[in-house]
């Protein structure tokens, strides 16, 4: 079985990606389990940060690596929180937690009352490299359109899931089952594209 280092220590993200990549028969191991520290993420785009994280994990592990850089982009906030989604609250002097990130986002959008003003999307960039110097990284993007709710709804998922309402489903992402989310999410869309590339280019599966 091919081992891929996941350039993340997020257990929930690992579980989602492991399920999404199960058809390939690959084993995802977190970089933390190999003693690899988190990479710097100095860039302004999901793709650039994903590539930096994948190369970092591959360099320190000697294994192929997969990185997921994802977040929330709110149109009325110029794409914020964007690449700073996981630590958005720290920009406002608050702790780096999901609850604080959600609270800060609600405060920043309090003046926006119409659904059209609260348009947002989850964005996922998945990057896979065979080595730290791989000249042909595989890059896949996924986007999931929705609206930011005025209050939390649902107990599932993580991050901004309780605030992201999907109009076509009539529910927040946190109200969906894990199976529904894995079938429809930005990460699922990116994973489907990356699965195709891994089969065609790396000949996996």
UniProtKB/TrEMBL annotation:
Co-factor: note: Binds 1 Mg(2+) ion per subunit.
GO cellular component: cytosol
Annotated residues for binding of Mg(2+): 40, 69
Binding residues annotated for substrate, in chain numbering: 8-13, 70, 158-161, 181, 186-187
Active-site residues per Swiss-Prot or TrEMBL entry: 69 (proton acceptor)
InterPro entries for this protein: dITP/XTP_pyrophosphatase (IPR020922), ITPase-like_fam (IPR029001), RdgB/HAM1 (IPR002637)
Protein family membership: Belongs to the HAM1 NTPase family.
Quaternary assembly: Homodimer.
Protein name in the entry: dITP/XTP pyrophosphatase
Taxon lineage: Bacteria, Pseudomonadati, Pseudomonadota, Betaproteobacteria, Burkholderiales
């Amino acid at each position: 079985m091919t081992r891929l280092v996941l350039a993340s220590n997020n257990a929930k993200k690992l579980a989602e990606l492991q399920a999404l990549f199960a058809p390939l028969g690959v084993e995802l191991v977190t970089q933390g389990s190999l003693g690899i520290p988190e990479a710097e993420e100095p860039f302004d785009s999901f793709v650039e940060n994903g590539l930096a994280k994948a190369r970092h994990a591959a360099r320190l592990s000697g294994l192929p690596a997969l990185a997921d850089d994802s977040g929330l982009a709110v149109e009325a906030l110029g794409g914020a929180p964007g690449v700073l989604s996981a630590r958005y609250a720290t920009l406002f002097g608050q702790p780096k937690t999901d609850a604080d990130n959600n609270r800060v986002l609600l405060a920043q959008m309090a003046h926006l009352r119409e659904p059209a003003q609260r348009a947002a999307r989850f964005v996922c960039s998945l990057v896979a490299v065979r080595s730290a110097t791989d000249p042909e990284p595989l890059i896949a993007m996924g986007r999931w359109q929705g609206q930011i709710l005025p209050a939390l709804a649902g107990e599932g998922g993580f991050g901004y899931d309780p605030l992201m309402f999907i109009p076509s489903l009539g529910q927040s992402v946190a109200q969906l089952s894990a199976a529904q989310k894995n079938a429809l999410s930005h990460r699922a869309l990116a994973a489907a594209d990356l699965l195709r590339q891994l089969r065609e280019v790396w000949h996996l599966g």
